[in-house]
Amino acid sequence: MKHIKQFVILSLSLCLLLPFSSTYGNEEQSVITPQNKSNTTAYQPLDEIHQLVTNHVKQKIDQKIFDASIQLRKLTPELKIPLCTSNLELLDKDLSNIAGRMTISVFCRQPKWRVFVPVTVEGKQPVVMTTHGILKRAVIKEGDVKQVLLNYKRIPSGGMVDASKVIGMRTKKAIAPNTVIKVRDLQPPYWVFKNKQVNIITRIGGIEVKTRGTALESAVADEQVPIRNNTSEKIIKGIVIAPNTVLVP
Q: For the chain, what is the HEC assignment?
């Protein structure tokens, strides 16, 4: 009986040392160990980030940069970012910067991460240029300027873009032909011109009296100007309150 017990214990020990398997019919079912599991970690496709930045830049420069070339410094393919389970979001800190170098950030809220994508935009911008030389203090007329497209690198700081905002303004200095007109080159337009007829408004109590006169100097809005009253021939001073109109206090 003692020998039988020893045999049973030895048999059980051998069973514990053997690899485990179970059979159903003729099919053997292998045991799945942790080493057999596949890596299921999901990563954010970098192309989605690049496309989001490209679409933003295209919208940003639309009708402002012509013959545009957009170059992204793409994220390295080795970069492994967790898949964003929320919507990708974009931040552009300088929307006024439409040409040259810029950096756009893309971020995710869940899980939290942020990447930066450098972008370079090349192209042309509209700008106002003189068609011929313009004298100092001259009033700019329609034929004096034109709108052209120049490479953004050739446009000086403060270059005017809209010709309609230049026409009627005065020059602070003489401007050479084929020169980009800058904001600092211009003065407000005259509302009253020397030796031209003006309306004179005089207010006495609650009564407003209107007469005609001749401006003895050119003047801009809110500027005081001498006027000769056409009826009395007296020279008075009035404040320009509208085109060809002065108010005598």
A: CHHHHHHHHHHHHHHHHCCCCEEECCEEECCCCHHHCCCCCCECCHHHHHHHHHHHHHHHHCCCCEEEEEEECCCCCCCCCECCCCCCEEECCCCCCCCEEEEEEEEEECCEEEEEEEEEEEEEEEEEEECCCECCCCECCHHHEEEEEEEHHHCCCCECCCHHHCCCCEECCCECCCCECEHHHEECCCCECCCCEEEEEEEECCEEEEEEEEECCCECCCCEEEEEECCCCCEEEEEEEECCEEEEC
Q: Are strands 245-248 and 197-204 parallel, antiparallel or unpaired?
A: parallel
The answer to whether 131 and 143 are in contact (CB under 8 A) is yes
> Above 70 in pLDDT, residue 220?
yes
CA-wise closest residue to 54 among 25, 90, 20: 90
Q: pTM, whole model, 2 decimals?
A: 0.63
Predicted pLDDT of residue 4: 40
The full length of the chain comes to 249
Asked whether the bond before 111 is cis by omega within 30 degrees of 0, the reply is yes
